[in-house]
Design a protein that fits this description.
412 residues; mainly beta; 27 strands; six-stranded mixed beta sheet
Length: 412
Amino acid sequence: MKRVILIMAIAATIGVGLLCVQGSGRLLAPKAIEENAEVQPVVGPVIPESLAVNPVKDEAGTEAQSDDTTNEESPDKHPKAVIDQVEHDFGVMEQTGMCQWSFTIANEGEAPLKLDRGPTTCKCTMSALPPHPIPPGVLAEVQVGSKTENKEGFFSHSATIYTNDPDNDSIRLTIKGIIQKFLATQPAEIVFPTLQRGQAANGQAVVYSQAWSKFAIEDVSSSLEGLTWEISPAGAETLADLKAQSGYRIKVTVPVDAECSGVRTSLDMKIVPEDKPDDVREFSLGILGNVPPRLRLRGRSLAIGRVLDLGTMLQGQTAKERLTMTIHDEVREIEVRRIETEPKFLKVDVVPYKEGASSLGVYRIDVEVPPDATPCSYQRPKFGKIVIETDHPRIPKVEIKVELLVGANAYR
């Protein structure tokens, strides 16, 4: 009888985020990462029973009875689990995706081999292995993987498979390696929380590699006109802090003109490893910056849309509110030329927040409802208003909406 050797795929995945890149070179002894393994078997096709054994017929054409009992349990016959390797070392690898390895288990015994899931080296769930036993002479493939995304250093993850082989009832499969950043930056982007119009801003970052002993930076460019940069080798202390073999410090100067509303650009370059000149990589260092609006108003009663709520009161009562006006511009000082209000009785005064500090661009706006205010109603959608005209070249007018209700006092 001829046996049909079948390959059944059983995948055990230990949740991974890294495509394995096998490296070379001397392995260091970095800090071990937290174990995070998961087994998720993927069941291969079920083999019909008719394909498992070719039937033998006698001279009359009648199927002969076979004493083969590979699909049945027998006290005198046992499975034998044989595996080519129980551990795989990836060496140095990059943080880029799924990291996994396939182990091959063969049944070289005389009875079906059963596989059952066992524990993994982390608190994770594991899908059940297929219920179909592996017949004698058949191979099974088990894939083990590990989630190493955003990790670095040494890792060792394992998963256990239980069998019905009396001489090998537990198989522990292990994968290990060293995760290194082939190319990274610190910080990830150059970010300017606040940029001032008319004032250039300086920032810096380190581009480094934990795997390459040397690399070159070529063809540096940026789409932002006026952006300049300086590139110099990173110091030994900086590289040690980053666990890097090589790196460069990049300093940039970002222009911020009077009309700038924000910076969203990058410094683009090519990275060429010295020992692998054909492994040229395109790399971009992000540069971000926020430019605040030229005029900013703040106040406890100021709502979205610059609506100042002066409240509800009876005739004869008063109300006072104070706003802070900040100017973010190369011209910080203003002179008030005219103030217009609706209703007319509103009193508005604009002065530097601190006496003699108008060059800082911070002003107080004091608003008062006087006791002689006449009954009125300025509520949505009919607002009152405060219009402040200035001599500023780019902020000629400041407009504030007003909500106010003054009721008649029957006792006046």
